[in-house]
């Protein structure tokens, strides 16, 4: 799942200058298709709210977020998590109304709703 | 059933921890009544443990799990975490067109240090992280001794 390694400046518990490597992660995603919309569920635990970004650019849906870090000097007895930033991009089809995209963050899952453009309504005609 | 004691957390903790985890596989099956499927795509929660003067904090990543689907118990100096991530249900007709998130049951056994006070364990769930705080026993906490300078 690791796409690339980006270099980012964070205040590290070091003297002098030291490179801090932050890994960019593509969050695991489930996509559901309903009659009127698509719903994306992205696994992004422990994200700083202010870093969470969902936007459309050139027909692509961008999702970004940064994980909360630990303060320096913490004494780790076990460290399995990584300092990551989440990033993922999806191509949007013509049928998606980019003006009505909504997102909510709950329990570490980012849920994005993409409404389909209201096309021709299919009306059922009752035969008498 | 085996008996195992951690002398104290130290530089050897990690090594000890991994050995411990391997040994627990058998024990887990006897502790959990339900069969836990450990498929390759099963959820395996990531854990961090931080120590400070007062307590130990366990950070467990379990996004998308409901509070009521998390089980925590202490047995033989070990913290047993289990639970289930359930797939969300939507109303009306729908189709899943991409599937990357694993759903189902998960479990982890985490050793508790010797000085952990098992009567004072608190857990809180927020933003997909389960925070478990385990206080240290009173006698092992560093005490401030008042020294009178004459």
Explain what the structure shows.
The complex is a heterodimer of chains A (128) and B (150). Chain A is mostly beta strands and 128 residues long. Chain A has a domain at 26-70 and 80-116: Immunoglobulin-like, CATH 2.60.40. In chain A, 0% of the residues lie in helices and 53% in strands. Chain A has no helices and ten strands. Chain A has a five-stranded mixed sheet, with no helix packed on it. In chain A, strands 3-4-10-9 form a four-stranded antiparallel sheet, with no helix packed on it. The relative contact order of chain A is 0.24. Residues 1-12 of chain A have low confidence and may be disordered. Residues 33-40 of chain B have low confidence and may be disordered. Chain B has a single domain, classed as Sandwich (Immunoglobulin-like). The radius of gyration of chain B is 19 Å and the shape is elongated. In chain B, the strands form two sheets. Chain B has a four-stranded antiparallel sheet, with no helix packed on it. In chain B, strands 3-4-6 form a three-stranded antiparallel sheet. The termini of chain B are far apart. Chain B contains one helix and eight strands, in the order αββββββββ. Chain B has 150 residues and is mainly beta.
